[in-house]
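Lab notebook, bench 4. Continuing the backlog of folding jobs that were queued last week. Each job is logged with the same field layout so the records can be merged later without manual cleanup. Today's entry covers Lipopolysaccharide biosynthesis protein, a 468-residue chain. Filled in by technician R.K.

JOB TYPE: sequence-to-structure
TARGET: Lipopolysaccharide biosynthesis protein
LENGTH: 468
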Amino acid sequence: MKIDRLVENIKIYFFGTFSTKLIQFLFIPLYTKYIDSFELGYFNLILSVVWFAVPLLYQTIWEGILRFVIEKSENEERIFTSTNLYCFGLSILYGLVFLLISLLMEINYGFSIFLMALTQMGVSYWQFSARALKNSKAYSFGLVANTVITVALNFILIMIFKLGLPALFISNIAGSLAMIIVMEMKLRLFANFRISKFDISLLKQLIKYSFPLSINTISWWLINSGGSIIIVNQIGIEENGIYSISSRFGMIMTLITSVVNMAWQEESFRIHGEKGADNYFNRVFDFLVRSVFSGIAVLIPVTFIFYRWFVYGEYSTGLLLTPIIYLSTAFSTFSSHLGSGFLARKESNVIFYSTLVAGIISVGGAAVLAPILGLMGVVVSSLIGTVCMFLIRALMLKKRMVLELKYINTIGLSLFCICVMFVCSLNSVSVIYQMIILIIVVAVLFFANRDIIFVFQSRINQKLKGNR
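JOB STATUS: finished
OUTPUT FIELD FOLLOWS
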């Protein structure tokens, strides 16, 4: 069954992604206690620039790999040979250019920044290749290797050697490199390289498909990371450090949502054009909306407790930002699901325009509100941008398929999360108070989602009986 295939992919991706996203929580006490907000703010700024530059410079060629390998498996060797050569050539060119720029401009940690960007490209390339080849185990093992190396080096270099900012660069680069090596051992993308399989015509097709998506990353960057530039310029780089810690709580939201989106993207390519595909799309989306908002409602009191126990010093001032960041992440997730409908139809240009509008709203709003509301103005602007992107994509996709979105559920659950946020903020310092709120929220959500819970329980019981 299609749903079984989707669930299986979700389970495999979850195993690997869980460890990586968990780092975002594990490092919060470490960073807030041992890393100065100025240094963390600078590192977050560099990460923002890397996330912007890498997809654009390499035209997100890995997106093309995922689509073309799934559709044209008979050309698998030609696809990988062509993209291998292309990425290798670009890396040499960019390395020489960056070396010249860093020497002329005397960029701090210039070599580390370049290595971080290069390994980030490699991670994306091998990750998407693993998904295209349906080798989910290689994907998961790579993420686990990344986690082990990153965690070990962070604790050793920060707590024992007190390296501060250099430790962040070293652990990031080493973790990504470990991931690439492990995945290459499983996938052998370069080991099976054959120059005779290079196909310039196929490469042009890949770039033609991927290039609009790389431009689209600029818009996503405006939404997710553009705020860092505004913060540094208008508020201060120390505030960017506080913002980066709050944003890490938003990243934990993607623990499940990114896994579902990755698995669903592959599924949408496979089922496009099949009978009942629209109904399947709508059922998955409804489940996603209910699950994500339920997760946010639970996470809000948990976050208040976590901040009270594990976030130190000036970083604790970012507590009230996290619920807004959760909501922004939720609507980004919903937009990504709707975006898969356009990707399945090869209409990547629609994704670009909708994301660009959202990006402009996010950054424009942040530029206006940051001097007035500080960091809260930045996160509120991002939320407004993601909601606009969701609405635009929903209206446009409705013209292309039978799209049934339960707006009442979406609005109602959004308001419920806002109410939980307000109630939690009334006594943010009391852990007992937050635990009471958590228990009430879990009880309400259990009642509201009892139909989904019973379905899962029934499926588990059936599998247990089948294994006897």
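OBSERVATION: The chain has a mean pLDDT of 85.
SIGNED: R.K.
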